[in-house]
Amino acid sequence: MLGYMPTDSSLIPSLLDKLAERDVWLDYLAYKREHAHLSKREDSELLAFIESEAWLPVAKRLMAHNGSLGIPEKKLINKLGKTTKRVVYSFAVDEQHVLKLLAWLLYEYDDIQPENCYSFRRGFGAHKAIRHLTSLPQIDSYYCCKLDIQNYFNSIDVARLLPILAEVLSDDPRLYTFFASFLQTDYAIFEGKLIHEKRGVLAGTPTAPFLSNLYLGEMDRILSAKASAYARYSDDIIFFAIDAPQLESLRALAEDLLTTYGLKPNHDKEQVSLPGDAWEFLGIAYQQGTIDLSAATQRKLKGKIRRKARALRRWMLRKGASPQRAVAAMIRSMNRKFYERGSAHELTWSRWFFPLITTSQSLSALDRYLQQELRTIATGRHNKKNFQMSYTQLKQLGYRSLVHEYYRSRTIH
């Protein structure tokens, strides 16, 4: 009879070991390049980081027993058009790079996620969620409810997450040990001072999406089994029902589940739609076969256009620049946002919305709004005098119509 052989987790292969392998870093770089995930600056920075082996000290530290990272910095980020701020965390540059590679390696666990969780997974994403929902044969006959979770990443209960994580990472005890330490160290640097606070899964850090997906996996399975249709993308939840009583039952169940997980729905963003009415999800609005930009998406873009126009108007007056120069600067800025940014995580409108929407109605309204603001840069007023700068002049300064570019993209593809 064989005697008992104690297991040594240090002998079990781990994803952490791959953090110290140069070939893995080169594979990671190749993947990022192939999928256009890097701007030129990001590409050169990552290549220099790999070539200098700056990743090795961090990797060795994480591979060691109870290896850990430094203390993250807490930052407050402005939300466009809102007085509230978003809390994000980041580590030192070299640690942040290593966490990005670890997040990339964690795609290995993608197959454990429920099919209706569309966030931060290869082959899934928001486009797939929208296409799936809008293609359902009976979608126009369903009642709909959309929920939003307040401060999702930073509100996750680590004590409740760890058992879920332990089960998922049962084949990689060293990785679990790292995450347990990482998540339970409730310190951060804020405005130069060390603070102690609950940080959840640390919004803004590369591994937060993976951890947040795991946290609500059980809820995804429960609601999808009871709803006529269901999808979740991070903190955005949408479900459908055949009648009003079923929808109310699902809404109550969703709130109960969120409460159980220590999360709060944002009632200001809750939306209920009757059969045939428009419903909104992930920036789009759907109604009886037509897909357009959501009202929230239009408001956000108009806010950005308005703020940029006012800033350039002030710059023009301060510098004594010509109206044509200021308007041309505004056009260049908008063109970059709409059409020209190169990295996939800075999705332009042409890459994000154009493949989804089936009408140019909202684009036409946005074109009119942008043209109005371009002319206002020159005059400072919203009146008929604005039309002293003609559409032809705007075109000569580089203006590109959203409607025109939308139909052009459909012709090309």
Top keywords for this entry?
413 residues, four-stranded antiparallel β-sheet, three-stranded antiparallel β-sheet, alpha+beta, globular
Walk me through what this model shows.
The chain has 413 residues and is of the alpha+beta class. The chain contains 18 helices and eleven strands. The chain has helices spanning 15-18, 22-34, 40-51, 55-63, 93-105, 126-135, 152-155, 158-168, 173-184, 208-215, 217-226, 244-260, 295-319, 323-340, 349-352, 361-379, 391-396, 402-412, and strands at 73-78, 85-90, 143-148, 187-190, 193-196, 229-233, 236-241, 271-273, 279-281, 284-287, 290-293. A four-stranded antiparallel sheet has the order 6-7-3-8, with helices on both faces. Strands 9-10-11 form a three-stranded antiparallel sheet. A two-stranded antiparallel ribbon has the order 1-2. Strand 4 (187-190) and strand 5 form a beta hairpin. Helix 8 packs antiparallel against helix 9 (173-184) and helix 13 (295-319) runs parallel beside helix 16. The protein is globular, with a radius of gyration of 25 Å. The protein starts with 14 loop residues before the first helix and ends with a helix. Mean pLDDT is 90; it is low at 1-7.
